[in-house]
Amino acid sequence: MDQSAINKLIAAHKPGHALDRPFYTSESIYQRDIERIYMRSWLYAGHISEIPAQGDYLLFEFAKESVIIVHSDTGEISALLNVCRHRGSRVCLANEGKTAKFTCPYHGWTYALNGELRGAAHMDRDFDKNAYGLRKVHMQILAGLIFVNFSQSPANFDAVADDLCEALKPYNLEAAKVAHRQSYHIEGNWKLAIENYTECYHCAPAHPEYSRGHALAQGKASMQVQLEELMEKSQHCGLSNKTIDNSFLRTRDFGTDTAFTRYPMIRGHVTGSKDGTPIAPLLGTVTQYDGGCTDFQVGPVSFALAYCDHIVIYRFTPVDVSNSVCDITWLLRGDATEGEDYDRDKLVWLWDITTKADKVIIENNQLGINSRYYTPGPYSSMEEFTARFIDWYLHSIVRTSAD
What is the pLDDT of residues 221-270, one digit of tens each? Predict the structure, then answer.
């Protein structure tokens, strides 16, 4: 498809309805998604606890890109493109580890932890090593969460920090640690994964484990009284009672989407566990369970669910037009000890079983969309946030005369 055909599809979209099939199957639109969405967005890459000491590193990868997130010898965290400046080989091959330097396995070019080229054998005398360090991408840290942006001129991250720093402060995520990370491969377009995450219309029929403890599955109207009671109680438990809704707004600088929305637990549940009972020490300065949880968002494709005793971070990344990955990170208080303060299986149970069910849902959704008989249907009132995402997405990929 050429850009003219893509623009016609965008113009033909019926507001309040799902997208047409090419948006999930066209290679041309997929490439447009990568350039217009992922290469311009603030993307969650990891947590500072994963690279606590000099030489610790991890890789952040999506589509065909790879970034080395490393704790350098100056004490700073750097985000280096994992592409050798000689002939383009991947430099770092392990997903995580510890090293004193990075050495390209192809021709042995050696780089310092800050990306500077230190060794390149058999090059001409006039070869300037200073001109061939590993390229960097923009990187910012919010409450211990590491974000990267591939754009040469990314949107100012201050807007994100201004929105969320105070609201996230009670959780003290800077002092948290990663208790578990897991990746779920999904045979479906990345947008289907995000659409599924941004609505709870499917929660009651598809996620009984989640629905028995979370009022969001009942819809916003039915939980209004519970929500008002929760917001009064939250501040007395050391939690923020703020509501922030700056998601998928055209008036925002691209990629600075943020949200912070509290909602109640139900039926005696106080956290996201099998029976709703506590599974880890309270986070930060939280003094007690208030019977609620918080959805928050940083950038357009990174989401999280914060309970009083742990936080679950969702990251959605594309592999190709028909495949994507959902990465989940479970964060706990930094001094929590496995086997004493928490049980890992109990910690991950709810969102592991929920995400496995979502994987099946999304893959079946993709199979149905692949049919020549698929036509987009209307959204329900419980899919309002998804409709906002779709409207923002179409606006983001359209080509204008300024391009």
Answer: 677 778 888 888 888 899 998 899 999 998 889 989 999 999 999 988 99
* DSSP states of 51-62: S-STTEEEEEEE
Q: Report the first-to-last Cα separation within the chain, whole angstroms.
A: 18
Query: Residue ranges of the alpha helices (H) in 169-307?
Result: 190-197, 203-206, 208-211, 224-234
- Residue 44 CA to residue 148 CA, distance in Å, equals 7
Q: Please give the Cα distance from 353 to 334 (Å, whole number).
A: 25
Helices (runs of H) and strands (runs of E) counted in the chain: 10, 17
The model carries a pTM of 0.94
DSSP string, 75-89: S-EEEEES--TTT--
- Other beta carbons within 10 angstroms of residue 363's beta carbon come to 16
Using the structure block, give the residue that is written with the tokens 């040469």.
152
Helix (H) / strand (E) element for 322: namely none
Closest alpha carbon to 195 in 376, 7, 11, 5:
376
| Domains of the chain with CATH codes | 43-139 (2.102.10.10), 158-394 (3.90.380.10)
| C-alpha to C-alpha distance for 166 and 140, rounded to whole angstroms | 17
The CA-based angle 69-70-74, given to 5 degrees, is 140
**For residues 338 and 179, is the Cβ–Cβ distance under 8 A?**
yes
Closest CA to 309 of 335, 331, 340: 331
